[in-house]
Design goal:
202 residues; alpha+beta
């Protein structure tokens, strides 16, 4: 990352950018959830719902849990959203495969690593990639987890993106669990989703 790019805590006005980056990082999965909410409220787009979600002052999906990479002109170039995943906020209905064809979120509930610092999403604008920005964001997130008393950091990645898997492995992540993706026209991935953790599988 160049000296002209800095990391700082997200501000409330970054909420729409965070939503845009989460939509990109999640291969369309987050957008499906937002569309479901927007469908019952005419005049609101899926991105509107996402932006309002991250504008929240409380909860896991808040701008307060994000870091933003900015250039010298304060333009946002990338972001990471992460938080502690514990027994208190884990999915209560997680279960192993097989899954129903209409339960597109099931694999990601199953792949939650309890008692880890969970990287919900990290993304950089395409024209600013390969400059060390994502690495700096991930390292900042891992540091946040350690400061919170969590020795393990986790994330979920798509197996078909072999280059990205190798990148995460170069940062110390290990594949610890797998689940088949429930296919959907708006999900830009097929095959398996992978849980990756900095703590190796035992």
């Amino acid at each position: 990352m160049t000296d002209l790019i800095k990391l700082d805590r997200a501000r409330k006005q970054d909420s729409r950018f965070i939503a845009q980056m989460i939509a990109l990082a999640s291969d369309g999965i987050a957008s499906i959830e937002w569309q479901q909410q927007a469908a019952s409220e005419p005049g609101r787009s899926a991105l509107d719902v996402g932006a309002e979600t991250y504008a929240s002052e409380d909860g896991d999906y808040s701008y307060r849990n994000s870091w933003i990479a900015r250039d010298a002109n304060e333009q946002a170039l990338g972001m990471i959203l992460s938080f502690a995943l514990t027994e208190k906020n884990r999915s209560i209905d997680a279960s192993p495969p097989p899954y129903r064809d209409d339960d597109i979120f099931a694999p990601y509930r199953y792949l939650e690593a309890v008692n880890s610092w969970y990287i919900c999403g990290v993304a950089v604008l395409p024209e600013y990639r390969q400059q060390g920005i994502a690495r700096a964001l991930i390292q900042q997130s891992i540091s946040d987890g350690e400061q919170a008393g969590l020795e393990n950091t986790s994330l979920i990645a798509m197996a078909e993106k072999s280059g990205l898997i190798a990148y995460y492995q170069s940062l110390g992540f290990h594949i610890t669990r797998r689940a088949p993706i429930v296919e959907h026209p708006q999900i830009d991935a097929r095959g398996e989703a992978l849980l990756m953790e900095t703590r190796p599988a035992t």
